[in-house]
Structures are given as structure tokens and as C-alpha cells.
Write a structure and sequence with these properties.
mainly alpha; 2 domains; two-stranded antiparallel ribbon; 17 helices
């Protein structure tokens, strides 16, 4: 349970970053207009591409694999928190699509129980919710890191470093793309493992050598890091480095052979953006404001799971592809707002059910 005292140590910078990147994810799947705000059109191609990598960084920044490896029950709880939404939301999407198809016959192919099974295990069934590949890769990467940290030696750090290098080798040599390019969208989670694992490892590294959860210093690096990040000049350097990475990403050829998240510039850009927001934690002092930001930050998971469903429901009444100008951007805001509202409604209902059975 999060108490009033614990709200004081919440990293509001990371919560705000989660909200922003959640909007970028929604825009990745719903934003179609070329006549919208100039700033949106200019910034979204890069920040939208960095959204998923940043979510992997955040997930593993808070993972604490050493504690999970020492306490198997904690690992099981973590795994359940990842698996249950994958199964639940897969079932929700399948039931809705199945009923809609039976009533209105909107889909060319019949929806079958096999689609549900494929959605649960791959998260990539196009007719249901293909963006859930993220959750599948999150589960695989969590199990992989847990297995490495079960090794009772100092070799796990070297193994992670080796894995980090191997991932970039198979990316830049094209081996990863050559293997999976003709395998179909259902194998996207496996194809993207080599692209997302470096972000997971980056999250672990940042947690190991930084102030975790806003106040705790890991492995005695407090003096070095605080002195290094104390001056304003470091923010100027980080911003300059991020601008350079932004330019490199913006000029990247769209025909690059990957599955969307490869390359050192994207990793560099994502890590710097995360560090900049993480280090703003001390700027907000109001506990009430922190509580509100924390609650909104927690809602991003529900938004991610539900935004394709919300988009499709809206598309029944409005043809998103035909909306020009500011409308398409505000539709993305509306979809995210509905997702946030759904989170708090589900939270309220869950508490009501718990209270009833107590």
C-alpha cells in the first residue's frame, strides 16, 4: 500500500515521462493526420519511436532482479502481474471481436478460439490487439534476467554485457532481420527480442548505479552521482547529446532493415531522455500533486492495454482516417483520457469487490 509518507519519495519525473510516452504510443497507433500542429508532426516521429524503449527501461529500472532471485515468491508475484493482464485483455478483445463479428459480420476471416490462444502466447494477432507483443517480450525478458541472476557468481554482470553486445551485433549485421523477416507478424515478439533486450539491460544498469525509486542509492555510488549531477551544466550536456541523437534518428532512412527499435542512436536517445526526467524528482514538493501524478502514471498500463479497443470503438462512429487538422491529435488525447478514466473505474470496482468479500 502506498502511504502519505511514501508519496514524498515517488519519482514524479518518471511518472510524467510515462504519461508522455503513453500518449506517444497512442499516437503511434491512432495519429494519421499530416496537417496537424507543426511541433507535433516534427517531434512525434522520434519521440514516438522512443516510447516503447523507454517503457522497457522503466520496467527494468524498477525490477530489482537480485531481490527477485533471492525471493522466488516475489518473482512469481511479478510474473503473475505480467501474465494476468496478457490473458485477461486477450480474452476481453476476443469476446468483443467475436460478438461484433457474429452480429455485424465486419471481419473477412472468422474469429476462432485459436485466435485467442495465439493472442495470449504471442500478443500479435492483427484482428485482436497486435500491440500486446510488448507484454510478451516483457515476460520473456523478465524470465531471462531472473535466470541470469540465479547464477551464484559474479558472472551474471559479464553475461549481461555479453548479451548486450550480441544483440547489437545481430542488429547491425542484419542477421536478426534476415532470420525473422518472412516469419509473419505472430513472431514479432521473438524478432524484437534482440532489439529490446539492450533497453532492459540499460534499465538494470541505471538502477544499479543510480538513486533507485527516487531516494535509495544502489551499491554506494551516492557521492559520485550526486556530485556529478549536482551542477546545471550536466543538464546542458545531456540536452545537447539528446539533440544530436534526435538529429541522427530524424535523418534515419525509413527503409532501415529492422523491426522498429534497433540501433545505438535510439538507445542513446532513450537513456538520456529517461535520465533527464528521472533527475527532476526533487522539483515537485507538494505531496498532493505527487499523489495525483503517481495515480495518473499508474494508469498508463490500462491505457496501453485498452487504447486499440477504444480506437476501434470510436472508429465505428468516426472515420479517424478522414479527420484532418487538429482533430486527429485531439482524438489521441481523447483515447488516452478514456483509457485513464477506465483505469480509475476498474480500480474503484476492484476495491468495491474486495470490500464486499471481506
Amino acid at each position: 500500500m502506498t502511504t502519505a509518507k511514501s508519496y514524498k519519495i515517488i519519482n514524479t519525473g518518471i511518472c510524467i515521462l510515462r504519461l508522455w510516452m503513453c500518449l506517444e504510443v497512442v499516437m503511434n497507433h491512432c495519429y494519421v493526420s499530416a496537417n496537424d500542429f507543426f511541433v507535433v508532426n516534427w517531434l512525434h516521429p522520434v519521440f514516438g519511436r522512443a516510447a516503447v524503449p523507454i517503457f522497457f527501461i522503466i520496467s527494468f529500472y524498477y525490477l530489482d532482479p537480485e531481490a527477485l532471485s533471492e525471493h522466488t515468491d516475489r518473482f512469481k508475484s511479478r510474473l503473475l502481474r505480467l501474465v494476468i493482464p496478457q490473458v485477461t485483455w486477450g480474452g476481453i478483445y476476443w469476446i468483443i471481436v467475436y460478438v461484433v463479428d457474429k452480429i455485424w459480420n465486419l471481419y473477412q476471416d472468422e474469429v476462432t478460439p485459436f485466435d485467442l490462444i495465439a493472442q495470449i502466447f504471442t500478443g500479435s494477432v492483427a484482428i485482436l490487439n497486435p500491440v500486446m507483443w510488448f507484454q510478451v517480450d516483457l515476460i520473456i525478458a523478465t524470465v531471462l534476467v531472473f535466470s541470469l541472476y540465479k547464477i551464484k557468481s559474479n558472472a551474471k554482470g559479464r553475461l549481461l554485457s555479453f548479451l548486450f553486445i550480441v544483440c547489437f551485433v545481430v542488429q547491425y549485421t542484419g542477421i536478426n532481420y534476415d532470420i525473422f523477416q518472412d516469419c509473419g507478424y505472430e513472431l514479432i515478439p521473438v524478432a524484437r527480442l534482440a532489439e529490446i533486450i539492450p533497453y532492459c539491460i540499460a534499465g538494470l544498469f541505471l538502477a544499479k548505479n543510480s538513486e533507485k525509486n527516487g531516494i535509495e542509492t544502489i551499491r554506494g555510488h551516492k557521492k559520485i552521482e550526486n556530485r556529478f549531477l549536482k551542477g546545471k551544466w550536466i543538464y546542458i550536456l545531456l540536452c545537447a547529446a539528446m539533440v544530436i541523437a534526435f538529429i541522427l534518428l530524424y535523418d534515419t532512412d525509413d527503409n532501415v532493415v529492422d523491426f522498429g527499435y534497433s540501433g545505438i542512436p535510439l538507445l542513446f536517445f532513450s537513456v538520456i531522455l529517461f535520465v533527464l526526467f528521472r533527475n527532476t524528482k526533487s522539483r515537485i514538493q507538494s505531496v498532493r500533486l505527487k499523489k495525483m501524478i503517481y495515480g495518473l502514471g499508474k494508469s498508463t498500463e490500462t491505457v496501453y492495454f485498452s487504447h486499440i479497443l477504444i480506437r476501434n470503438v470510436i472508429a465505428v462512429f468516426f472515420d479517424i482516417g478522414s479527420i484532418k487538422g487538429v482533430g486527429s491529435f485531439w482524438i489521441c488525447i481523447s483515447i488516452m483520457s478514456i483509457g485513464i478514466a477506465s483505469h480509475f473505474i476498474l480500480f474503484f470496482l476492484k476495491n468495491c469487490v474486495r470490500g464486499y468479500f471481506k
